[in-house]
Design goal:
The protein is an alpha/beta fold and 569 residues long. It has 20 helices and 13 strands. α15 packs parallel to α16.
Amino acid sequence: MGGEHNPRVCHFPPGHGILSDMTRALIIVDLEGVAEVDTIDALLAGTPAYAKARALMTAEVGAVVEGLRAAGFTHVRVSDSHLCGSGEMNLLAPALPPEVELHFSETDACAAPLFEDVQAVVCLGMHAAAGSGGFGAHTQDMLGAWTCAGRALSESDVVLGLAAEAGVPAVFVSGDDVLGQSLGARVGYVRTKVALSSTRAYSRPVEDVLADLRQAATRPPRPLEPLPHAPLEVSFKSRQQARLAAATGAHRVGPYRVRVEGATFRERYTRALEATAAATAVMGQAVTASPGEAAFTRDAMALLRLPGVPAGALPRYEDEARRALTAFLALSQGTDDASRALRALTLHMLEGHAPRAFARWALGPALEAAVDALAEVPLALPPGLDAEEGMARVDAWFVRDARGLPNQSLPPDTLRTYLVALDEEGSGLHAWLLGEMAALRGLDVRLPIAPHAFRDVSRVVTVYWLTHLFLLDSHYLRAPLRAPDTEAWTEELLVATPWVLGEGNVDLAGELAFCLQCAGETEGGAHAALLTFLAEQQQPGGDLMGDAHATAAGLLAFAGAGERPPHGE
């Protein structure tokens, strides 16, 4: 049943009020707080778990309707507030009494007409506020965190604030333990589950919950305390999101935060909702899969896990950077081609990415020696040459050419033949990258590889492809980003961050961190989480996993963190 095609779903024309002699209750229902809806896939259309979740949600509404009718309410209005990705309503209309008035809106589940001619409100199946650690915790969408007078707002807080302003009392709220603790004694509460994390919960038995909901619905409504008359602030997870939100008229009060004002809470809520809706335009950049696909569920979980702006200033990581440098110089002192290329390329990148640290550590002579040693790296690229060895040889040629030094000749036909061989043997990412690096230096023999060819190969390949888009556009951390797609790449990196951290991939964590630094995302939660993880993984000797490449990535990330002052807007 759903959306615009469901004859049971009512829609209010603009400015239309509903007047009635009946005693009407309003139920705002969500899905995260419904009993036995304990995993993220159950919240998303197209999954087997979602089909069961719809039935569970409908059963809870039915139980509450039964209790409200027993309490004397003659009519019940229900607003289905959960957005599952399908654009349609979640409730199964035929399973509900015909007199129940159903509403579904993708833009505003708390529209003003819903509260007209209502004598009580129930918040059913709700979740806790963004950043609270509750199951499925967010506020209005997965990108923003709402506050009022310094207090984090859940969607239940918003509904109760709107109801209080309209003079409508509340019967009860239901959801997980985290939401219950945040609401305290302000309103009656039915706990349906315990949150184990933002993506897992442990529910009470369904029959017990239905009985409690039915009983709670028979209790008298209680008056509500209005929210403070103060601006609403919404904090986002990227600078682009905040910029889009501010374009609606919200006041930008920080790189990641906007503020909205208004004479009433309804006005402030409406303006915050408009700002939040504008910010969600980035979702098409960050989430590339469709509902029902495993990648869509993965990315939805990532958005929930993606931390918001941290409190306080980010550490400078100067000691971590210094120790990583010492370890890297030790790990890359070999005379093999790979060691020579990695040493020179990393120092070349460090000079551009963290020039103050580079100067403070007096690395000029070390870089000069490393670049001189590249003259001994052969440039032959015969078909069958190992991809990593070929990468080292092209890296060496690239660095010397970028620094304007005498260099070996790289015949176009030789490189093209090697790229074709790499692609045919399954090393397409290497073939793409070597072709792009050569093109940066004026030797364009790139293969006709589609721009998004690596997105579906594997998650690791996709993320390495993304980080190297940043490296190429910045000429390996030596120039500002210029490509028009950098904001889209950044949103994808942000969504990838929880997955990288969950996998414990130290090398990718370092690359994500210095790419976010290039994009100006140095004050966000993703950047902070990546650096915290890297610092935890750093060994006493300063290395990361004892691996030269991972240590190089960590070095660039730590040095970049200490280099960049907070960004204003």
